[in-house]
Amino acid sequence: MLASFSELFARRRGTRLVAATLVSGMVTAGGLAGAGRAAADDETTQRQGGAAATIGGLKTFGAAVIHGGTGDQEISAGLFEMSVDGGGMLQTYCVDLHNPTQRDAKYHETPWGGTSLGVNRDAGKIRWILHHSYPQVNDLAALARKAGVRGPLTEQDAAAGTQVAIWRYSDDAEVDAVDPQAEQLADYLEKNARAMPEPKASLTLDPPAVSGRPGERIGPLTVRTNAGSATVTPPADAATSGVRIVDRQGEPVTATTDGGQVYVEVPEEADAGTADLTVQASTTVPVGRAFASESRSQTQILAGSSESTVSATAGVTWAKQGPVPALSAAENCAEGGLDVIASNKGDEPFTFDLAGLEHTIAPGETRTVTVPLQEDQSYDFTIHGPGGLEKRFTGVLDCLTRGSAAGTTTQTLGEPSPATLSGTAADTNLAETGGSALTPLIAGTAIGLVVIGGVTLIVLRRRETTAGE
């Protein structure tokens, strides 16, 4: 069992489930990144740092019943396990009831704003449930007493009751636990839940991209982490390129702590180029962090973490003259699109094409370009810059639960199928757990579906524009 902590509460509302929807397509801008040395270094998803993991399966679970317009459907409800890249284990609950979970899907820690939690006013109550129930509270007798549960509360009951309470807030679902003890726990959690703020990331670099001139200290990059310390890894070719990672005084840096600032020092004679700086740490991931998949597998929320490997990478660009851009991107569910953040520390404007439109970033300016996307829409953008810079951003916009079709044109794909409730994780079909029997549709066909609407609007938002920053 993973790390555990303290107590419980929550509330209830019975909202009818809406038929599952899928509106998808592919948006492409520019050519795909080729081999070039500056070609985004495999940055094909909008990871902002933290843990990356592979989902293994539903490990501790009971039974639940969804009450829908087409009748009742019985599914499994409980805790998933994930194995962290580099070492560590995570326990998670689902926050996307009608979307199936793909076996061995890759996940990454992400802000709430990049998932359905970012547009869910009850997301903070879900975090409260996580802190006040299993596995954070692993004294099941005490948990049962606090919740007024009559009879013994097993791990399976506790996991099922917690998941049911979460679904009532994450999906507005009318769902009940089959076991009476689990149902009593779910009701208690739902009734007593209170809003909590979004937890901070386990590890990030701020900003995720910087630029400047050779001979200068480029940065700073600020480390944000809950770990005691983090290791700083210089670019792979640092020994031959002369690129150094230093502090404000120019002293070499190999490790830092939360709030620490590092700079990239490039030799004055260096040609225009790019590099990546990586920071890595070992820590427990904060409870309540969201985990999004790279293939539209069911969104998860963290319930428990062992000591795990976390990392963050920032891109660095430099040039002696002309435009010197820094580029990063993040999914923005509140705006329904992809935010591309472009800054220019050069002495000439930086012009690039994105989604068929041209944008110009003046010297010293930082601008956010929001590319509107349909829910479930795949995107693939490559932005080209000076010195061979190629920055590629790909992914799938996943901002709504399948039970909330707000603002989208819907296509009914069917209600969830009953899961096999065998009592052992090995017998559980992840495609059916916490969702529907739609797995064959998810991986390959999402890219091929028709784009509904299309990209017709680019929203520009200015940020700080002072050249000296």
Keywords:
disordered N terminus; 469 residues; 6-stranded antiparallel barrel; 7 helices; 35% strand; 5-stranded mixed β-sheet; disordered C terminus; mainly beta
Architecture overview:
This protein has 469 residues and is mainly beta. Helix content is 12%, strand content 35%. It has seven helices and 25 strands. The strands form six sheets. The protein has a six-stranded antiparallel barrel. A hairpin with a 6-residue loop joins strand 15 and strand 16. Helix 1 (123-131) runs antiparallel to helix 3 (155-170) and helix 3 packs across helix 4 (180-192). Residues 1-45 and 404-469 have low confidence and may be disordered.
Short description:
With 469 residues, the protein is mostly beta strands. It contains seven helices and 25 strands. 53% of the residues are buried.
pLDDT averaged over residues: 80
The radius of gyration over CA amounts to: 23 Å
The portion of residues forming beta strands comes to 35-45%
How are the strands of the biggest sheet laid out side by side?
Answer: 2-3-4-16-15-5
> Which parts are unreliable, with pLDDT below 50 for 5 consecutive residues or more?
1-45, 404-469
Oligomer state of the chains in this structure: single chain
Annotation, overall tally of beta strands: 25
Main β sheet profile: 6 strands, antiparallel, barrel
Determine the structural class based on helices, strands and strand pairing: mainly beta
Report the span from N to C terminus. 47 Å
